[in-house]
């Protein structure tokens, strides 16, 4: 193996480790640290849905909701069938107060994967939309 391939493999290993570190930091409720760890991965692989999804989660948990919306929207541009990205985009829109848009995303997520968590979110936002309409 030549030096260039060794360097590329090493960079790939570093990005993988940074991605895993960012995941762990989010799980430990340290989203700002996760974003810092994820920086080199975002620079190297901005069009990977998994990278954008992780960044979106970190933005969401650090209340950077506009950035979270952009990341989740990018995931859905790359993979429209990602029900979890639709769910967290819906939750992001809900936190931004854009309830009708949130409801649309949450309903699609639930239709794609009818789990109780998604149904609960649909019910919650639907109730809030009805309250605002009265």
Compact summary:
By secondary structure, this protein is mainly alpha-helical. Helix content is 83%, strand content 0%.
Could you spell the SSE succession in H and E letters?
HHHHHHH
What class do helices, strands and sheet pairing give? mainly alpha
Ranges where pLDDT stays below 50 over 5 or more residues in a row are 1-10
Give the domain tally: 2
Q: Radius of gyration, Cα only, in angstroms? A: 17 Å
The CATH superfamily title of the largest domain? Tetratricopeptide repeat domain
Q: Fraction of residues in helices?
A: over 70%
Largest sheet: none
Task: Give the termini distance in whole angstroms.
Answer: 69 Å
Shape: elongated
- The count of β-strands is 0
Report the mean per-residue pLDDT as an integer. 91
Just name the CATH architecture of the largest domain: Alpha Horseshoe
CATH topology of the largest domain: Serine Threonine Protein Phosphatase 5, Tetratricopeptide repeat
What's the CATH class label of the largest domain?
Mainly Alpha
Helix tally equals: 7
Sheet-strand content, in percent, reads: under 5%
